[in-house]
Amino acid sequence: MCPSRSLALLAGLLAAAQAQAEYPLYTGERLTLGRKVWIENCETCHAYGVAGAPVATRPELWTERIAKGKQVLYEHALNGFYGPMGTMMPARGGNDALDDEEVTAAVDYMMRLAAPTSTEAIPTQ
Ligand code: HEC
Known about the structure:
Layout: H1 3-21, H2 29-41, H3 43-46, H4 63-67, H5 70-79, E1 81-82, E2 88-89, H6 100-114
Helix pairs in contact: 2-6, 5-6
Bound molecules: heme C.
């Protein structure tokens, strides 16, 4: 591999590692699992608004969604969901290998990022 290419690759890896370090660690197994799943599967869209995804760190984009209740958000994350603007959340974030616990834990983690003080965002499992 030519040196400039490996340097670019290294820079990319460092940027990714740095971005991950910014996501808070919450206590509890559920949110620890959720953080891992979220970074590996959901961050690509939900950190940057890719494909119209609501950005996890912008609470104003989540108020109405959280008001639907956590069970609805779980259901939409597991089975996929088309919003009123025609944007689409793919079932399981597009990774069929994730089980229900992993997907719903990632929803819990994203809700904590979006609304740290909302009681709806406190994991129940
Ligand atoms: C390919 C991009 C993409 C990936 C990857 C992705 N999402 Fe989404 N997600 C979206 C989009 C776009 C929406 C907004 C859909 C709408 O409301 O129009 C969304 C919405 C959501 C919502 C809100 C649903 C609602 O009813 O308001 C939840 C919860 C969610 N995603 C969870 C997840 C989880 C958990 C993962 C990882 C396992 C994930 N997403 C991965 C694109 C993505």
